[in-house]
Amino acid sequence: MIEYENLKKFNKKIFKKYKLAINKFLSSNNYILGKNVFSFEKNFSKYIGAKYCVGVNSGLDAMVLSLEALEIPKGKEVLVASNTYIATILAIIKAGLIPKLIEPSIVDYNIDVSKISKKISKNTKAILITHLYGRACNMDIILKICKKNKLLLLEDCAQAHGAKFKNKKVGSFGDAGCFSFYPTKNLGALGDGGAIVVNNLKVYKKLLSLRNYGSNLRNKKKYDYIGSNSRLDEIQAIFLNLKLKLINRINNKKNILARIYDKYLSNEDIVLPAKNKKIYNVYHIYNIRLKNKIIRDSLKKFLEQNKIFTDIHYPVAPHIHKVYKKFFLKEKYPISLQIHNTTLSLPISFSHTSREVKKVCQKINFFLNKKN
Q1: At what angle do helices 247-264 and 354-371 cross, to 10 degrees?
Q2: What's the average model confidence in pLDDT over 97-125?
């Protein structure tokens, strides 16, 4: 059997050191916002190439708090890709702002930079981009658009720990870089967790306050803002500090497996992930696209029958969900629908072997060649 993901198998490599660190933590008498969180924040900001890092309890909260800390007036618009995960759009709504969807590029599935300028209005105050599947957006053009139109730039890096555009890591380009440490991420914790990286000291200090009920940084019994309880947990920080030491190995291994898929998957019915020399893709997800939904669903079923398990990121476009329809009544998003209906995510974890990936390719090629 080839599982889509086996977190236990990989995380087991870290458990010995983790248990030692946990035992030390248990006797510390400092369980909230202690030295483990501060150590991870320092290490992660250095890894990304940003001045400051604020650990929070999820990737969603990382985006919500960033939007609040940047003081975007309520009711203003934030541009966002129409095929992103629902959390990106949810963050905008939670922050009291209006999400305005922009179609992705059918080539790389990230926000289509050629369509951004047309969507900017007097009410637009920011762009929240998603580096989807672990692939960086075209930052040259996005930065030019933001500068020209005086827009804030936030980066959803939930799937892109260590991804680069022109050798610069994502998260370090905009006014805030937002990360998730959900267990399946390339840098995943043992539960929920998130972080924000910024270069602005004022924004950094406000984020520190917002994550801790809005408390005054000098006097915790006074409150400067209406904040949240969104602190990265010490236990998760311990694990993340250990795993951060392995992140380059994880990303490199995923690139090795991706090259095997690129080499051995050969059929006109498959669209492979696009290549770009300016981009270092960390392949949180190795995403292929099929000609239509029927072929995609049939292939997924065939692979399951052969004990090869895949996933779909994501089966339903955000604007289709009943609860979100009211926000997007006026426009249609055919490219987003096409991607959601035809995409299939193949096994590509640190624990997978080259042999397993070659077997996946063999079964996919067999199915599609037989179909034709």
Answers
A1: 30
A2: 98
